[in-house]
């Protein structure tokens, strides 16, 4: 439960309340083999979306495909926006879930369809700074949001609703509690180093 609830509720918020993704839409998910990324991929697939997953290695690509990704982009070897345009026939994607931040901001702008939505919910590579709002217009009247779960799960009823959705998805098999690595509590520094290096898959658990 510790490895699932916060990330699962975040995925529920992102898909249903921020992105409002519908069946048939094509969605771009960064860090798709990470803790939230795997849940997003499975959740999106379960509601009928087509998922383009961005990952950093073949091992992570395999995990993303296992979670339901329809297409995988290896960001170290491929131009993200060019591949998105290729996959979508030049249309771009209407919703982008970006947990990377600074390093992928331009690719997100270049991958969005007109009136598309970029949901920036993390900054693993650093925060996005100096946003020129005119660029959003030039790229097709884009929308950007920077949500946090704590502004959505503001009441006991809202928190219960997210919990119910997470467990329903878990029971259906659409998502799994993916624990990729475990560290003893005294190795917390090593755990952080691996997280910052982007070498982890799924959730990372510290064991007291």
From TrEMBL:
GO terms for cellular component: cytosol. InterPro entries: ADH-like_C, ER, NAD(P)-bd_dom_sf. Keywords: NADP, Oxidoreductase. Gene3D superfamilies: Medium-chain alcohol dehydrogenases, catalytic domain (3.90.180.10), NAD(P)-binding Rossmann-like Domain (3.40.50.720). It holds the Pfam family ADH_zinc_N. GO terms for molecular function: mRNA 3'-UTR AU-rich region binding; NADPH binding; quinone reductase (NADPH) activity. Residues 1-206 form the Enoyl reductase (ER) domain. PANTHER family: QUINONE OXIDOREDUCTASE PIG3-RELATED (PTHR48106), QUINONE OXIDOREDUCTASE-RELATED (PTHR48106:SF13). This is Quinone oxidoreductase.
